[in-house]
Design brief:
- InterPro entries: ZIP.
- It is found in: Cell membrane.
- Keywords: Cell membrane, Membrane, Transmembrane, Transmembrane helix, Zinc.
- The chain has helices spanning 2-6, 10-29, 40-69, 78-97, 108-111, 122-148, 157-184, 189-198, 202-216, 221-244, 250-271, and strands at 100-101, 112-113.
- It is mainly α.
- It contains 11 helices and 2 strands; from the N terminus they run ααααβαβαααααα.
């Protein structure tokens, strides 16, 4: 099985990994069939944990390889710097266009962002918010698998798998973080579950796009790696960290972030 996966085209590898992370989101969303109410302590803990995973993945799996890929260039850090900033700008642009909500924002002007619309309910806006966050996760998986065959000596199949595993782990609480609040608002279990799992449908799509883009234009690899990192960091700082700190469980959320960071660091160093 391992040899079969290794011989697959990188785009198919990325698609497969994206499907697995999507299914793990569905596993987390299935929490609505077990728990009846949302526990803020658990929710804040999960959000902090997810943020830690994403921050560690952004550096070890994406930014560091981007810098090392161009270490013989005139300005080794330039592609990583440009890609990183563009990734953040890209997510901000999507923020500006796609309607979504930030549940715990204290400023009412920031609670609802994107194009104004009255036709979308609160649950849909919450799903769109998480869907936005899953786009850079899918991209990061794609560029990691694409980098394995693009001539990047720092990229390995095990490293790409480690990144996918880390993102998959943090997708479990992320799925619950979508479905549980929707269930708490009165939606049926199946409706809440479907909303939760659908929030990650973009991951296999953008994983395939990321891998294909790197394979088509190999010189863009360091930019693509850093782009995915910038997008992930933007999501962490704008959404996950503030949400995890919005309740009365700030210390627990912070410790969970550190645990998530450590787990992803170990995964990347051990497998990369």
């Amino acid at each position: 099985m391992a040899e079969l996966f290794q011989n697959l085209p990188p785009a198919i590898q990325a698609l497969s990994a994206g499907i697995v992370t999507w299914l793990l989101t569905a596993l987390g969303a299935a929490a609505v069939f077990v728990f009846k109410t949302t526990n803020d302590k658990i929710l804040n803990t999960m959000q902090g944990f997810a943020a830690g995973i994403m921050i560690a993945a952004s550096f070890w799996s994406l930014l560091q390889p981007a810098i090392e890929y161009n270490e013989d260039g005139a300005i080794p850090w330039l592609p990583a710097a440009i890609g990183f900033l563009l990734g953040g700008i890209f997510i901000r642009g999507l923020d500006f266009v796609i309607p979504h909500i930030h549940r715990n924002a204290t400023d009412e002007h920031q609670q609802r962002e994107g194009v104004k619309t009255k036709s979308l309910n609160k649950s849909t806006l919450l799903v769109l918010a998480i869907t936005l966050h899953n786009i850079p996760e899918g991209l990061s998986i794609g560029v990691a698998f694409g980098g394995v065959v693009s001539g990047n000596g720092q990229a390995t199949l095990l490293g790409a798998l480690g990144l996918a595993i880390g993102i998959g782990i943090q997708n479990i609480p992320e799925g619950a973080a979508v479905s549980m609040p929707i269930r708490a608002e009165g939606a049926s279990q199946w409706k809440a579950f479907n909303y939760g799992q659908l929030s990650a449908i973009v991951e296999p799509i953008f994983a395939t796009v990321g891998a294909a883009a790197v394979l088509i234009v190999t010189p863009m690899l360091p930019y693509a790696l850093a782009f995915a990192a910038g997008a992930m960091i933007f999501v962490c700082v704008e959404e996950l960290i503030p949400e995890s700190q919005s309740g009365n469980n700030t210390d627990l959320a912070t410790l969970s972030l550190m645990v998530g960071f450590t787990i992803m660091m170990i995964l990347d160093v051990a497998l990369g």
